[in-house]
Amino acid sequence: MNKLDAALLNILTKDARVSFADIARQLDISRAHARTRVQALVDDGVIEQFTAVVNPEKLGKVISTFIDLKIVPQHIEQVAEELASKQEVVSLYIMTDLRSLHIHTLTDSYEAFDLFAKENLFGRQEVISVECNSLLKRVKHRRGGARL
Length: 148
Fold this sequence. Notes:
The protein is α+β, with helices and mostly antiparallel strands. It has helices at about 5-15, 20-25, 30-45, 75-85, 110-120; strands at about 65-70, 90-95, 100-105, 125-135. It is elongated and about 60 Å long.
């Protein structure tokens, strides 16, 4: 990947709906070259998909909670797969110690999160410990930039 591709990705990260003509103008290249470079990035797997970013608050999902679970190591894959299938779970990661799951959930209320925790986390023999914190304020997110 070169500087042109990096600049192109920066443009698409901010607005995946930008036209090839606009990309070409911003990068001072032809529209055909912009299209070719984008397609090459797709073909190489650098760009996995073009998607919409949905504001969960507009859908009533105002409680963003981060959970760190310690799991009996031989059960980590099974617990991860089971929790990943839950609608409240928006991201889930197995950490390098191979016994920790880092989970992000979105719910419409603390009561809904409490119900999720009671039904899916507490009382499970595979779970060693549970730590969770709710988001107070988002300052920067994966796509970069401030979110007000």
